[in-house]
Design goal:
Elements (H helix, E strand, L loop, with lengths): L6 H15 L3 H31 L42
């Protein structure tokens, strides 16, 4: 709960809500609840999208029909990268003067 909000304050807010909304109070509470649920669904979808983008490769040329909600399967074969070998020149340098 909020700090500093006790039973008397809650009763005060309840009386104010009853005076303002009267018979429409259940309808207002229902619409407020639906709004909170939609907000949570939106947050959850954003989190799922961020997780999916974090775990999916940027360019998937081999499997273009993969679902955007599923995480990619790990590849069985690993590709080893190596730096190109340095080969010294076999001829003498030319003077460009």
């Amino acid at each position: 709960m909020l700090p500093g909000v006790g039973i008397p304050e809650m009763m005060f807010f309840g009386i104010i809500a009853l005076l303002l909304f009267g018979k429409k109070l259940p309808e207002v509470a229902r619409s407020l609840g639906k709004g909170v649920i939609e907000f949570k669904k939106g947050l959850r979808s954003i989190e799922d999208e961020l997780d999916t983008n974090h775990y999916s490769p940027r360019h998937d040329y081999n499997n273009s029909s993969s679902s955007s909600n599923a995480r990619p399967a790990p590849k069985d074969e690993s590709v080893e990268t190596s730096a190109p070998k340095f080969e010294p020149p076999t001829t003498e340098p030319h003077d460009a003067a």
